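[Discussion] Sanity-checking designs against the backbone

I'm trying to build intuition for which residues belong where. Below is a structure token string of 242 positions. I'd appreciate it if someone posts a full sequence so I can compare it with mine line by line.
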């Protein structure tokens, strides 16, 4: 159980709350810091583009780095993530869509361990050890734009995480988003992650704020709170829309 908790924590660390922004044609650069034991700093380049028949193509590349001290050991972890996703929307009426998506994520993890008190480093953290993780996710949901301009969304995702073993999980979530006439966009999302056959093992609350300077440029910030294990992330980003 500890292993799947660790992997899921890293898996969703760089999730972009604004991936379905009101203008989905953009490129974005973000930087975050975290108090999670294994990840301290995250740099991400991401973007998406809409094309015909209500399809959306998205992608991102992230570089994460962390270091920590265990008894007798100093350890580091760097993670390079490459993600690609395809969304498809099915309009029910002028304000409501059925949403669906497929996402594929490939990670390269490099771990090191340096002895500080004469103990043995574990095999999993031998010097320069490289490992890989593959994550594939499918989701279906619904979103509605109210008369007051607030978007409410419900979604459930099913995923497989493949490392040394396969882990299967599901992730129900609820989100809300609003953009004011002044171009200030606010959003929040709450979700629970469960491994199949178990109770929820992680809950997440993410809050975002983005200021649209004009139709092509925006700056924003995000806050993420995770329970089990408990940690938080704070980030900023700049976006160029087109």
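Best answer:
Here's mine. Compare freely.
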């Amino acid at each position: 159980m500890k292993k799947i908790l660790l992997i899921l924590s890293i898996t969703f660390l760089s999730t972009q709350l604004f991936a379905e922004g009101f203008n989905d044609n953009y490129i974005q650069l973000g930087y975050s810091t975290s108090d999670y034991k294994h990840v301290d700093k995250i740099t991400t380049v991401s973007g998406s583009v809409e094309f015909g028949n209500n399809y959306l193509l998205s992608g991102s590349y992230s570089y994460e780095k962390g270091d920590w001290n265990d008894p007798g050991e100093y350890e580091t972890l760097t993670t390079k993530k490459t993600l690609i996703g395809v969304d498809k929307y099915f309009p029910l009426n002028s304000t409501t869509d059925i949403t669906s998506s497929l996402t594929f994520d490939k990670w390269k993890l490099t771990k090191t361990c340096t002895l500080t008190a004469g103990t043995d480093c574990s095999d999993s953290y031998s010097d320069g050890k490289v490992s890989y993780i593959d994550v594939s996710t499918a989701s279906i949901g619904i979103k509605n734009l109210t008369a007051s301009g607030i978007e409410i969304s419900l979604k459930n995702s099913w995923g497989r995480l493949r490392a040394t073993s396969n882990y299967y999980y599901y992730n129900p979530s609820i989100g809300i988003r609003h953009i004011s006439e002044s171009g200030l966009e606010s959003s929040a999302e709450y979700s629970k992650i469960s491994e199949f056959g178990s109770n929820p093992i992680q809950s997440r609350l993410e809050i975002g704020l983005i200021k649209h300077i004009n139709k092509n440029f925006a700056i924003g910030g995000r806050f993420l709170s995770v329970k089990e294990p408990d940690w938080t992330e704070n980030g900023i980003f700049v976006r160029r829309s087109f």
